[in-house]
Design brief:
hpI Integrase, Chain A, elongated, two-stranded antiparallel sheet
């Protein structure tokens, strides 16, 4: 860490310096598989760029070469244990463009973070992100799972029997009626339901708060007749008011995380 600070003061920060600081201040505090995934990507980039490379020298041609080598499966990454033994990291023969793009997004995120880290003299750990604006490769035809209405009906028929609290069925009704992400539905409050009937909202309305929307937009959405039945049912099973969870978040997450069957 001291070497990283000295390098920054000298106007030269290496890839190893940047990653060491990021690992200590950011990765180490992530939950779940976050630290391991970060360590894997840092190893990939250090192997490709070299640990002593100045971060300012990373440019578009460098990333273009990374993309070509990753697509061709010619990039080799080796790990070394404490005894000096070397093991080749499995990268996959034909990684998708989404996978390659995720590696670049990680590097971009680390560089952006470095540009926000202030040193004691007022300078930044990284002057600026040298690859800002690089267009990451993306799959032209990404495969996205689509649940049909018939599948919803089959699942809905078993919800009440599967959930002793009788909450999961209403949750599935909201999924079908609103089309929101699961995380947004799991964070609904009782205050997010407006049951007043107006000419514009004959079945009431529901609020999608900005802090749970991926674009940060807060809005009130009119409820359909079928979608309105879901919060009414929840109110009958679990009466709550104000800024309290509309349903059981733990129960909803448990059902959504349970594999089919």
């Amino acid at each position: 860490m001291l070497a990283a600070v000295h390098s920054a003061h000298a106007g030269r920060v290496t890839i190893a310096d940047l990653f060491a600081r990021y690992e200590r201040d950011v990765s180490a505090h992530k939950k779940g598989a976050g630290p391991a995934e970060d360590a894997r990507r840092m190893l990939i980039w250090q192997s490709f760029l070299g640990p002593t490379r100045d971060v300012r020298s990373v440019d578009t041609p460098t990333l273009d070469r990374f993309v070509r080598e990753r697509r061709a499966g010619t990039l080799e990454v080796w790990t070394t244990d404490h005894a000096g033994g070397r093991t080749k990291l499995a990268l996959g023969v034909r990684p998708s463009d989404t996978t390659i793009g995720a590696d670049i997004v990680f590097l971009t995120s680390v560089l952006n973070w470095g540009a926000r880290v202030a040193l004691p003299d007022g300078s930044r750990l990284v002057e600026s992100n040298p690859i800002r604006g690089y267009e990451c490769p993306k799959n032209k035809n990404p495969k996205r799972p689509v649940a049909s209405y018939d599948r919803y009906l089959r699942m809905r028929a078993t919800c009440d029997a599967a959930d002793p609290q009788q909450l999961f069925g209403a949750f599935m009704d909201l999924v079908e009626g609103l089309g929101w992400r699961v995380t947004a539905l799991c964070q609904l409050w009782a205050s997010d339901i407006d049951r007043r009937r107006t000419p514009i909202t004959p079945h009431g309305r529901i609020r999608k708060r900005g802090d749970v929307d991926k674009t940060g937009v807060e809005m009130w959405v009119p409820l359909s007749e079928s979608a309105r039945a879901a919060p009414d049912r929840l109110a009958g099973r679990k009466p709550v008011i104000g800024d309290s969870p509309l349903g059981s978040r733990a129960a909803w997450r448990r059902f959504m995380d349970t594999p089919p069957g």
